[in-house]
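so im writing up the methods section and need the WGS project CABT00000000 data, contig 2.11 record in one place, dumping it here so i stop losing it
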Amino acid sequence: MPAPTLADIVFSEQANHNFSKILGDLKKSNLSITNRLKSIQHDAAFVQKVADVLGLPLVANERSRRVVGTEMSEEGYIQGAGDDTENWAHGLTAPLFWANQSRLLETPEGHLPGLIEELVANSEAGGQAVGELKRVAPRLLVGALSAEEEALRSASSSSKKEVCVVSLVPKTTEKETWEKSKRHMEVGLGKSKTASRFLREALPSICDFVSRFLQEPADHDVETEIGTGTGAGRDANKEVVLLCESGRDLSVGVALALYCWCFADSAGTVRSAEDQEQNHNKPSIRVKLGHIMTAFPDANPSRATLQSVNSFLMDWRK
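--- predicted struct ---
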């Protein structure tokens, strides 16, 4: 039998094209929305069975492999599986999936994006009311930009509750124009992933603005502070309202950054200026993100948003 020639070993251009197309189609079918949703459903059922046997609460946490090296000064980390929901879920959240799982899994793949958009729109219309704010941590509230008018009215009122408003608007604006008043900041970051990336550069200004508001004596507490010689009551009636287009992404990311940067504990004790630049780490950030998600399960900060927050908090250069 003669030895194979190079022509026998190397695929022709047409064969290579067909082979690549087959592999691409196969990968695309495996990564379909339907398959991803079925995987979530099956994984959840498996975890529930294990939890029932052990008598312990368990959480399904998908990862692919451990990467040797560093990420934000860590010794190593577990790389994500590369299936971030913002890349394929079309805005579908966990509560929305579980409430409509049968309908979603029965729908043909080609019709799923449209169905998901319909479910998301109906959820937003019938869920959080226009102007409604969600408290995600002591002194921190988030909401959609539709709540801005009411929030600004509270910020300018003479009531005992002092309010600071940070609006994250879907257009890009110059940093010098962000501070509208002592109690209102309008930050133009743009839309979608662009906004999430620009958030990293905006967080120092946002945190500084909010810190100044929290640390200055409240108008109605000046007399108390002078009389007692302490500043214990200076921030007791101050709240920060954070608004973005959806009320679930950028505003939640900024709330997480402020929760870590401005507050010493879960009771809402305001950090001193000297204490703010302490070393933040992933475990402490994750704990506070857990507090926020527990208080607001419909929150849906994108991976890019959370990366910007982590980068700001754990970068010593700030």
